[in-house]
Amino acid sequence: MKILAIAEQRDGSLRGVSREIVSAAAGIAIGHEGEVDVLLVGGEGVEGLASGLNGSGAARVLVASHEALAEYHPDGYARVLKGVVESGGYDAVFLPATSQGKDLAPRLAALLDVPLAQDITGISVVDGALELVRPVYAGKAFTRISVDAAPVLATLRPNVFQPQDWNAEVDVESVEISEDPASWPTRVVSFEATGGDIPDVAEAGIVVSGGRGLKDPENWKVLEDLRSALGASAGLGASRAVVDAGWRPHGEQVGQTGKTVAPKLYFAIGISGAIQHLAGMRTAGTIVAVNRDADAPIFKVADYGIVGDLFEVVPRLTEEIKTLKGEG
What we know:
It is a single chain. This protein has 2 domains: 2-183, 3-Layer(aba) Sandwich (Rossmann fold); 206-324, TPP-binding domain (Rossmann fold). The chain is 24% helix and 26% strand. It contains 7 helices and 17 strands. The protein has helices at residues 17-29, 74-88, 99-112, 221-230, 240-244, 275-281, 310-324, and strands at residues 2-6, 9-10, 13-14, 35-42, 60-65, 92-96, 116-120, 122-126, 129-136, 141-145, 152-156, 171-174, 206-210, 234-238, 265-269, 286-291, 304-307. Helix 2 (74-88) crosses helix 3 and helix 4 packs parallel to helix 7. The chain is globular and about 60 Å long.
């Protein structure tokens, strides 16, 4: 079995989710006498990031570099991927289910004329064929998917597949960019960053989310302080009600109509736990809920629950975390 894993880089740095995707692919391929290649796309000098994939389980890192690809370009990236996939004879192609991956994967599926399996949380081989697992019905059930197409194209949910270490360095090979970037039907004018240095909620290892229980957008500082105390891997999330009220940007919305997250640790602060919200976060590793209503649905999925006034509980929690980290 030959699998191609698509690595993701941004601003000259390899994203942590890349090793997750490669490890997931390697866990399948190596166990079935196969191999994994990684495709790394970016601007000139991007090949310097390949060393970050040493020991990830990949055999080769294929590097497609061009000044026109320095920033994410939907058409350019999709066409580069299409050429590599078609020339490589891959049985499967895995991309991260990040905002970039979710934009890129459907374009690639259209170019290859194959179906796309989105937001996968489990992979196995049954009777020699890949079987994929994804949550359905707001995470209350899981469906098993087999794809009758070649290659099998899927996006894998971040923070689900744990990176493994294999003692091997990767070989690095260059991929020729045969198309003239001027022929691409669109061009990227600019990128407007949001959130500063805070990780995207869909990719953060820890998520602090707030709901209507915060009462006013000015009170969001309570969550920002907690997020800051937890460290650089923590991101901010919000319920739909909060986003609809204009308190927070849509990019932070967690839920069925927002983003699906699977962090190692999820804080639900002042969130009742409507089914639409649970659909986006119930696969988190550990869920901590703070709510004044002891009967709030969020407590049914929480690993730890605190019934109390969040304006008293959260600042105390923040101070305790700072103390434990030696910052208090």
